Amino acid sequence: MTHVPYRDPDDLEASQRERLIDPWREHFGYVSLFRKVLLHDPDTLAAWDRYYRGVMTDGEDISGAEKEIAFVVAAAVDDCPYCIANHGEWLVEEHGYSMAEFERLVVGEFEGFTDRERAVATVAEQLARDPSGVTGEHLRSLREVGFDDSDIVELFVAICTLLSASALMQGLDVDPGDADRDLAAYAPDGR
């Protein structure tokens, strides 16, 4: 059980629900556990939404799918079951990757992916494991597949955003098994 109870979105004032929950529910068909935790502080959730949309939208040069690859890899390194399951579901269901590809990303096996996907995954793995271990070779691998300095910063911000959310979810002991949808296929331990 999570250290802070999930807040029921239906308990919000109508204006808050319309702003913070209804668009999410209409788009995805559910309310994530991340949102149910942040509903304890609606102003923070609103600020997170603005920030997250800016970070996660398809960029001119970095796709949402590439960011999800980075998220899955970073979540696996950071050992966040909820983040792995939630972003694994998005990678497979929203971006069309196979379960086998998702599972390979989780265990750090990047062969069989495109050069660009491998570069993104390798950098995400290193940044999550030890940010001070990012080397010129990591950046060179990104540049060789079309990243410029702006793209590199955008990717790093996306990865660090996941790591921030991961710390929150792990610190509050959010379990993918508590979701209103079945995330067991994507959870590393089948929860």
UniProtKB/TrEMBL annotation:
InterPro entries: AhpD-like, CMD-like, Uncharacterised_peroxidase-rel. The lineage of its organism: Archaea, Methanobacteriati, Methanobacteriota, Stenosarchaea group, Halobacteria. Keywords: Oxidoreductase, Peroxidase. It holds the Pfam family CMD. It comes from the Archaea. GO terms for molecular function: peroxiredoxin activity. Residues 42-125 form the Carboxymuconolactone decarboxylase-like domain. PANTHER family: CARBOXYMUCONOLACTONE DECARBOXYLASE-LIKE DOMAIN-CONTAINING PROTEIN, SI:CH211-175M2.5. It comes from Natronobacterium texcoconense. This is Uncharacterized peroxidase-related enzyme. NCBIfam families: peroxid_rel (TIGR01926).
